[in-house]
Amino acid sequence: MGLAYALSSPEASAFLYPLWSIELMLIACLYAYLGIKTNNILFKMTYLMLANGALTLTFRHYRNKLL
């Protein structure tokens, strides 16, 4: 889905971004879960940083709609 969003036309991206952000939110939840469950501090930090990046991209769209 992410590749389809990246290669889509600007007109289609208005419809694809909400779908892509939901997919990205699910991936962020998985990274956050893995970050909480792992005991290795390096893996924990990596998973939580990935979750943070994914959530930042997800909420950027909704923040721009509110402004």
If you had to describe this structure to a student in words, what would you say it looks like?
The structure is a single chain. The chain is mainly alpha-helical and 67 residues long. The chain has one domain. Helix content is 90%, strand content 0%. The chain has three helices and no strands. The protein is elongated and about 45 Å long. The two termini are 27 Å apart. This is Nicotinamide riboside transporter PnuC. Keywords: Membrane, Transmembrane, Transmembrane helix. It comes from Glaciecola punicea ACAM 611.
Low-confidence stretches: none
Q: Radius of gyration in whole Å, from Cα? A: 14 Å
The total strand number stands at 0
Order of SSEs, N→C? HHH
What fraction, in percent, of the residue positions are helical? over 70%
- Count of helical segments? 3
Q: What structural class do helix, strand and pairing data support?
A: mainly alpha
- The number of distinct structural domains comes to 1
State which percent range the strand residues make up.
under 5%
Distance between the termini: 27 Å
The average pLDDT value, as a whole number, equals 84
Largest sheet: none
Q: What is the overall silhouette?
A: elongated
What keywords describe this structure?
single chain; about 70 residues; mainly alpha; 3 helices; transmembrane helix; membrane; Nicotinamide riboside transporter PnuC; transmembrane
Q: What is the compact description of this entry?
A:
By secondary structure, this protein is mainly alpha-helical.
Topology:
Elements: H1 2-7, H2 10-37, H3 41-66
